[in-house]
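Input (Cytochrome bc1 complex cytochrome b subunit):
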Amino acid sequence: MSTAPNETPRPGAAGRPRGKAPAGERLADWADGRLGLYALAKANMRKIFPDHWSFMLGEICLYSFLIIILTGVYLTLFFHPSMNEVEYHGGYVPLQGQLMSEAFRSTLHISFDVRGGLLMRQIHHWGAVVFIAGMFVHMMRVFFSGAFRKPRELNWLFGFLLFVLGMFTGFTGYSLPDDLLSGTGVRFMEGAILSVPIVGTYLSFFLFGGEFPGQDFVARFYTIHILLLPGIMLGLVVAHLILVFYHKHTQFAGPGKTEKNVVGMPLLPVYMAKAGGFFFLVFGVLAALSAVAQINPIWAMGPYRPDHVSTGAQPDWYMGMAEGLIRAMPGWEIDFLGHTLVLGVFIPLLVFGLILVAIAVYPFIESWITGDKREHHILDRPRNAATRTAFGVAWLTVYFVMLIGGGNDIVATHFHLSINAVTWFVRIAYFVGPVIAFIVTKRICLGLQRRDRDKVLHGRETGIVKRLPHGEYIEVHEPLSQEQLHTLTSHKQYTPAEIGPTVDENGVERKVPASEKLRVKLSHAYYGEDSQIPKPTVDEYKEIASGHGHH
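Output:
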């Protein structure tokens, strides 16, 4: 810019002395000199993220977790975690003059007398349900696509722990109001603790501060709910995200996608803008759901009394499997060294724990069976891992069968059935259902593999029927594009493990460990002839394509 001869030049572009940076820039330089923020941002702000819709499942979990924390902070300002008995004189007229705990009274106060309190309670509760549901579906996506394989086994464990801790955080959370419904759930938990052999009574007295319900469990659950479990979960979320950044995202097979790259959009500005919009979308959906769909109306249940049980009391869906196992189990009891062992409760809890452990260690089991030590960044199509997919569906079958068992009384009354008939159905389906689901799912996966092979060799059916000069009718097939061919043939096919020769060149017999025999058998079960359809070879494709395979 030029200036008039007698005009004094302005100090700088923004009216500041030349050579002096704006305050914000100086602050950024100061922080960068001490924290290295510029180099960190430069290295990570352009990180590429795949754009597949299924990756949003993890984002729903993250955003609902943040919403739970935000609404939980608001609720703690008004909640009193005390079991001291008081008389109610609040805004809810039907309970005027009733004796109840301070915890129940403060929850009523939040619901009826605090501006926006009921909406915050409902957002908090719905957010917890959506968080655990999102974790459940997200873990299934990771499982069925094989995203848990090396180097992501630890991230699978972190996600699994988040899911389990979320279950117990939800349980402690809905137990805090001290209403009749949540009190029934706490009573159920007390019975489960008492079933632990030898030490069950001591554990119960320790948790409840004496004979159930005691005077301390709300205060103790409150500390666990707002401090202990969320703190651990927050640390796991941070560790989970760090490993996602470090390992890079997985991606589905496609042109240009390899084990050494990621195809997608950069974190800044594209992905950040999408993530920000998606956060407010999740928040908006939760707020709308909370405004129109009532959840946990404690005033309809009333305060908890140990001698009362609310009609139709059911656990939250994520605890339904544990209760279903106990309801379906016969009421077995034995006497052992002067102690009564309640096997009808302890065995189902033991089975529930073993199922959770099996889910947690599955990545290591599959890695041991395959002997695969390679890193995997390309996801499997579930049909191409037939045995794994069948196991997943079998587990889901167990879960939903036990969910029916957890509400056997509701199922019986709503469908006018005998509760004994429902219970026996659950007992039988628990053993038969997973086997049927495994077989059917595996056959479906193999059928889809055959269809993919046929598509590669013969192309896509167009629905056009053509008559040849000699009178033969054929359906015209359209050859697949290179992109489609790549998607259908890029998956890795494993060769089942073999024991190998048991006698060396000197005639000395080699002892084969039992673990190795088991691994070979499982490997054949996973990748034998009955578990995967061979991919078309290049020669087969050329032979078909060069002849009359594509009409």
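The two ends are 72 Å apart (CA to CA).
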